[in-house]
Specification:
single chain, 105 residues, alpha+beta, GIY-YIG endonuclease, 3-stranded antiparallel sheet, 3 strands, globular
Length: 105
């Protein structure tokens, strides 16, 4: 059985805040945060709707994704979370705000 790839995502709420998380399925996770399917978090439930703002990865396992998520959460705030780069952390990989998932493609 193939190990799923992991992703670190940044969501933006119409109410203003940005949220960072990690998952093997960003599309499903966004639906959960928006209450379309079960499984969203308490914090995100009160600030719906959410839209994709950046997607980083893939990471080969949960451990790597959590390290990247930690680096992003502790290195950037607000809209700057969408401007994460390799200059900020070695864990920054992928297209970020230019990912097709973010652009709706």
């Amino acid at each position: 059985m193939e190990t799923p790839l992991w992703w670190v995502y940044v969501l933006h709420s119409v109410q203003g805040p940005y949220y960072v998380g990690s998952t093997t399925d960003p599309r499903r996770r966004l639906r959960q945060h928006n209450g379309e399917i079960k499984g969203g978090g308490k914090y995100t439930a009160t600030k719906r709707p959410w839209t994709p703002a950046a997607l980083h990865g893939p990471y080969k396992n949960r451990s790597e994704a959590f390290k990247a998520e930690y680096a992003l959460k502790h290195g950037k705030r607000g809209i700057n979370r969408t401007k994460w780069s390799l200059e900020d952390s070695e864990w920054c990989v992928g297209l970020g705000p230019d990912d097709p998932w973010v652009l709706g493609k």
